[in-house]
């Protein structure tokens, strides 16, 4: 259900980010995904942030982005946030965040977001599909500014290009609501 702007950027407050990142602890989990062909479609390390107050804050950010972008989706839940670190050669190939069937509670992912936590790395650009089959380049490339969140509708194809230098750090979130009618 694509309405209005395909994406919107919102600044995240320093206090919010500081509170959020206090929940990143311990060794990060390997989150490699290998496709049927043997190609690695995702390589990164992650951990989950499940604090209800933190999640409530990001749900509010997403609801504001939803309104500001003109999507006007019914949103009422957020999944745990995923903290991710991409090292040199790590990437996440083309994918969509919206699943083919609703969760058991009838909710679907409607809005996805990525918070860019640093900018001292090279590569790692975020590409989002915005074109049509007639266009030569069918995506927009984003090199996010530190402490900004990039919100987009969860049914858009997107990827993170390979890191070439440094470590890319981000928070990823998915905001849900009742299935589309």
Features:
single chain; 181 residues; mainly beta; Jelly Rolls; eight-stranded antiparallel sheet; 14% helix; globular
Q: How far from one another are the termini?
A: 10 Å
The figure for the number of domains is 1
Q: Calculate the mean pLDDT score and round it.
A: 92
What is the number of helices?
2
Question: How is this structure best described in words?
Answer:
- The chain is mostly beta strands and 181 residues long.
- It is built from two helices and 16 strands.
- The chain has one domain (13-178): Jelly Rolls, CATH 2.60.120.620.
- 14% of the residues lie in helices and 41% in strands.
- Strands 1, 2, 5, 6, 7, 9, 13 and 16 form an eight-stranded antiparallel β-sheet that branches.
- The longest helix has 18 residues, at 52-69.
- The protein is globular.
Walk me through the topology.
Elements: E1 7-11, H1 14-21, E2 29-30, E3 33-34, E4 40-43, E5 45-49, H2 52-69, E6 77-78, E7 81-86, E8 91-95, E9 107-116, E10 122-123, E11 126-129, E12 139-142, E13 148-153, E14 158-160, E15 163-165, E16 168-178
Antiparallel strand pairs: 1-13, 2-5, 3-4, 4-8, 5-7, 6-16, 7-16, 8-14, 9-13, 9-16, 10-15, 11-12, 11-14
């Amino acid at each position: 259900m694509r309405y209005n702007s395909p994406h919107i950027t919102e600044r995240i407050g320093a206090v919010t980010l500081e509170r959020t990142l206090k929940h990143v602890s311990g060794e990060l989990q390997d989150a490699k995904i290998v496709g049927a062909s043997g190609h690695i479609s995702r390589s990164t390390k992650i951990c989950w942030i499940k604090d209800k107050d933190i999640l409530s804050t990001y749900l509010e950010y997403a609801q504001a982005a939803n309104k500001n972008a003109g999507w006007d989706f019914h949103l009422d839940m957020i999944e745990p946030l995923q903290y991710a670190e991409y090292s040199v050669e790590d990437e996440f190939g083309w994918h969509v965040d919206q699943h083919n069937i609703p969760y058991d509670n009838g909710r679907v992912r409607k809005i996805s977001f990525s918070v860019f936590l640093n900018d001292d790395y090279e590569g790692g650009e975020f590409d989002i599909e915005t074109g049509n089959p007639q266009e030569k380049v069918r995506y927009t490339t984003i090199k996010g500014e530190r402490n900004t969140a990039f919100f987009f509708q969860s049914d858009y194809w997107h990827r993170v290009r390979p890191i070439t230098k440094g470590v890319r750090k981000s928070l990823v979130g998915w905001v849900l609501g009742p299935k589309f009618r």
